[in-house]
Amino acid sequence: MKLSKIDFMKGTALALLLVAAVTVLAGPRVQERREAQEKTILPENYFPDGAGRDLIFQGCVQCHDLRNTVAQRKTAAGWKRTVDEMIWRGAPLMADEAETITKYLAVSFGPDKPIPEELKKKSTGSKH
């Protein structure tokens, strides 16, 4: 059986309509699932309100995906060492800002705070 050019074009048009319909119908659901997953693992969602939160978003995200930060648990001394090292590496923080961030991190991500399950997966590290 040989297809005529018109039959071939009708079949092609039907196939394209089917692909378009599947894309249109599945697209929003896929997007919604992707957005829901991204919302649940956005590190920003795990930073509690506090004086250091905005400073972290200003001074740390230039080099870091904050997932690693919220997945760590350190003492105040441990966070101070980390913040001092970041300043040594070029983090744009003044002394009072570093102190505020250190206190914020120690309270928010101290050794007594549980790590959310979704953040226990391998970290993505820095943006560089």
Structural notes for this entry:
With 128 residues, this protein is mainly alpha-helical. The protein folds into two domains: 1-41; 48-119, Orthogonal Bundle (Cytochrome Bc1 Complex, Chain D, domain 2), CATH 1.10.760. Helices cover 61% and strands 0% of the residues. The chain has five helices and no strands. It has helices at 5-41, 51-59, 67-71, 76-88, 95-108. Helix 2 (51-59) packs across helix 5 and helix 4 (76-88) runs antiparallel to helix 5. The N and C termini lie far apart (60 Å).
The average pLDDT value, as a whole number, equals 80
For the largest beta-sheet, the strand count, sense and barrel status come to: none
- Specify the structural class: mainly alpha
**What name goes with the CATH superfamily of the largest domain?**
Cytochrome c-like domain
Which CATH class of the largest domain is shown?
Mainly Alpha
Helix content: 55-70%
Annotated CATH architecture of the largest domain: Orthogonal Bundle
Question: How many strand segments?
Answer: 0
Task: List low-confidence stretches.
Answer: none
Quickly count the domains: 2
Radius of gyration: 25 Å
Categorize the overall geometry.
elongated
The end-to-end distance, rounded to whole angstroms, is 60 Å
Order of helices and strands: HHHHH
Question: How large is the share of residues in beta strands?
Answer: under 5%
Q: Helical region count?
A: 5
What is CATH's topology name of the largest domain? Cytochrome Bc1 Complex, Chain D, domain 2
